[in-house]
Amino acid sequence: MNDFQKELNGYLRNEEFMKILLALELNLGEEYMSENLYKCYERLIKEGFFEVNELKLLEEWLKDIQELSLNR
């Protein structure tokens, strides 16, 4: 139930979620993917879709992805 409650906003406010993301000014290009994703999370946190601790998890995930890319 806890997971469901955390996801409920995404279901009930789906249209708002989409409008928020579409209104963001993001940079074009693969090299901006991490930066753009970070901007999306910051905004969605501000709007109450995610908890603040999600930003730290995203940072760690992006760091892992970067390391994996460098080790190829």
Write the layout of secondary structure elements.
Layout lengths: L1 H11 L1 H10 L9 H14 L6 H18 L2
State the secondary-structure class.
Answer: mainly alpha
Give the fraction of residues assigned to helices: over 70%
- Helices, by number, come to 4
Let me know the average pLDDT.
91
Strand runs, count: 0
Report the sheet-strand fraction.
under 5%
- The low-confidence parts are none
| Measured distance between first and last alpha carbons | 40 Å
Number of domains: 1
Shape type: globular
Rg calculated over all Cα atoms: 14 Å
Q: What does the main sheet amount to?
A: none
Order of helices and strands: HHHH
Write structural notes for this entry.
74% of the residues lie in helices and 0% in strands. The chain is an all-alpha fold and 72 residues long. The protein has one domain (2-70). The longest helix has 18 residues, at 53-70.
